[in-house]
Specification:
The structure is a single chain. This protein has 469 residues and is mostly helical. The chain is built from 18 helices and two strands. α3 crosses α6, α11 runs antiparallel to α12 and α13 crosses α15. The chain is globular, with a radius of gyration of 22 Å.
Length: 469
Amino acid sequence: MRSGYVKALSILAAAVGALRRLPLEGAIRLAVPATVVAVALGSNWSPSVRQVAQPLWKLLLALLCALAVAYALANAGPRRLWERARSPAYALAAALVALAAASTLWSADPRLTVERAASFTLVLLAAAALGLAAAGDRPRVERLLVAVAAGPVAVAVLGALVLAGAHHDALQAATKTIPSRYRGIGQNPNTVAMLFAATLPLLMWLSVEWRGGRRLAAVAAILLLTGSIVGSGSRGALVTGAAGCLLVAVATAMSARGRVLAGAAVVAALAVAVGLGQIPQPNPQAADVSPIACPLCTHRPNDADATLRLEDEFGAPNGADPGSKRTLFASTGRGQAWEGAVDQGQERPVAGYGFGTEDHVFVDRYYSFFGGAPENSYIGVFLQLGLAGLLLVLALAAALVAGCAAAIRRLDGAGRRAAAACTAVVCAGLVLAVVQSYISAAGNNATLTVWLCAFLGLALAARPAAATT
């Protein structure tokens, strides 16, 4: 890992040298997509890539946070920032960060809690600082949103390049119950799919807002991300991404007939995507009965966990029976995992096991479920911070959605469309949180994107500076 940090520091030094030549906003608009790409590579299927990318994304996140704070101070100053930060969302975010830090005192793994609380604090601070800096300034918000969308598109392009050059690495092999699934540069198919689902509403907004060649580029990006989600087989990401696009389409239509047509087009596209997703089939001759469960395994032929997970040896139907075939509506064992995680959380119901300990205290004891976390962000927060943390997260989410919705009601034209895009990303992110554990994990692909859009949407709800003086 030391060599990984050395390489990461070298890359960061080169990046800082390049960013110093740019205006502050320009540096941020490069740092945002660079951080998103680094986070995605941090969950890459290659241990060699992860060794460099994991320390790199942490360093880039710290750099982005420092740039965002400097940007906020340069554009507003301490007094005006304090006035803008009176929104309940900022107070709730601060309370959540404080609780995460305080949970070190009772954490099952204090060191891990400190590290992950620090990373999550950087995410929220960077998002909040950019939101405060751009409050009431629609053009500035729109430029930052373009930077947010650029990161996931770069991740999709890198995945497509890997698919073209080394398709066996970009695809997760089929098993007896699960067809081959596209994972691009991610460690598993769900990590990149959820990032793309959260980004589709932004690209939908850009395809409406832009003209000429830029519009064609936005449409091409939509097709690339949608194709990646379909190939991943992630049902939650597909439905959530479509719902986000539907919200943007309806909000940006100029008439009732336009809303109906836009909605029908999104629903038709979803139906086509679902149909294409059913084409890949499981391989009845496959030797593996499940995806590899151990992220640290060396993937050599003598790794028993790559063939049959240790936790599946007891209670498995008919020994090594592969289980039920994965279909569009089939359960993947999440219900059992959720029930077990809630039962475990009830042993520490008030303040949980400590921030960031979700994947350390949760144990997958369920034959049909494959995961190191319960794959539900709300249950994950309950495990980490108990009812206190869960109520804070829900209150923060409600405040951010209310702020974005207020921007839609107050604005018209281009401002209304941008607010609709932010609202769609936040709503998509909150729905994805039901089927993925990510909302408080800085190292997850979609976390930074969702939080940035949430606070930038809140910035659109603020009155322009000229109107408040």
